[in-house]
Specification:
With 226 residues, this protein is mainly α. 63% of the residues lie in helices and 0% in strands. It has helices at 2-16, 27-36, 42-54, 60-65, 68-75, 81-99, 103-107, 111-119, 126-136, 146-155, 163-174, 184-202, 215-220. It binds a DNA duplex (13 and 12 nucleotides) through α2, α3, α6, α9 and α12.
Length: 226
DNA sequence: ACCCAGGTGGCCC
DNA sequence: GGGCCACATGGG
């Protein structure tokens, strides 16, 4: 298991090159992006983020103050704008109330506690919470998404693991991995980004893994379809 | 005219 | 625990 995932990491890194995620100038921008990108292409998220930036609203204090209708207007291109506005408001309010809008204060707490806090916010689910922990706060938490689950099932690495089990599989397999100055956290960041890139290119729902770099692994494990 | 996107919560069984 | 649905815009 561990060996397989290390192999996948090297395969993907070699195939696609470093992705250097998460795009974003500040950790708070990463937090906002994590909500906006729920079930939404990054292209659309970029438009929304640029709108917020252009209006000078992409900071905890300003986002906390401006009227919901204004946020809706600005994030419209990212879709689900009513519900995402509520989620951004809730997240921002938490960040200000608990940590005075300070990333470094928030980082002082351990990952399990922060994860619990984030998950208690309505609209922040596991992937969004973990994205914030890994990419905004540099915590050693692996982010699992729909592509990751598909990949795990198709390669036969696991057939039935749920979100947290898959997260654990990756964390265990990758936590001691070090190469070329990649820290563990950097490997987690890069691996998730590479899996998304893989998914975007090859793991659409209909055809299975043809010409996918992992094809050989899929075949070897006898995986035919999703 | 479909299908899909870097999910989540609510409701049902 | 799992299965289905609404949420919405923009690109293939």
């Amino acid at each position: 298991m561990r060996k397989n995932l290390l192999r996948v990491f090297q395969l993907l890194l070699n195939e696609f090159g470093a992705q250097n995620w998460w795009p974003g100038e500040t950790p708070f921008e990463v937090m906002v992006g994590a909500v906006l990108t729920q079930q939404t292409s990054w292209k659309n998220v970029e438009k929304a983020i640029n709108n917020l930036k252009a209006e000078g609203e992409l900071s905890p204090s300003s986002l906390n103050k401006i009227p919901p209708d204004r946020i809706k207007q600005l994030i419209k291109p990212a879709g689900f704008y009513n519900i995402k506005t509520e989620r951004l408001k809730a997240l921002t309010e938490y960040f200000i109330k608990q940590y005075n809008g300070s990333i470094s204060r928030m980082q002082k707490n351990a990952a399990p506690r922060l994860r619990k806090e984030l998950l208690s916010i309505k609209g922040i689910g596991r992937e969004t919470a973990d994205s914030i922990l890994l990419y905004a706060l540099d915590k050693k938490i692996f982010v699992v998404d729909a592509y990751t689950i598909r990949m795990i099932y198709r390669t036969g690495i696991s057939k039935s693991a749920d979100y947290d089990e898959i997260r654990k599989i990756f964390e265990t397999a990758l936590e001691k991995y070090k190469i070329n100055g990649y820290s563990t956290v950097d490997v987690f960041k890069e691996m998730h980004a590479l899996i998304v890139e893989l998914g975007k290119r090859y793991c659409k729902k209909i055809p299975i893994c043809n010409e996918c770099p992992l094809d050989e692994m899929c075949k070897k494990k006898g995986v035919q379809n999703e």
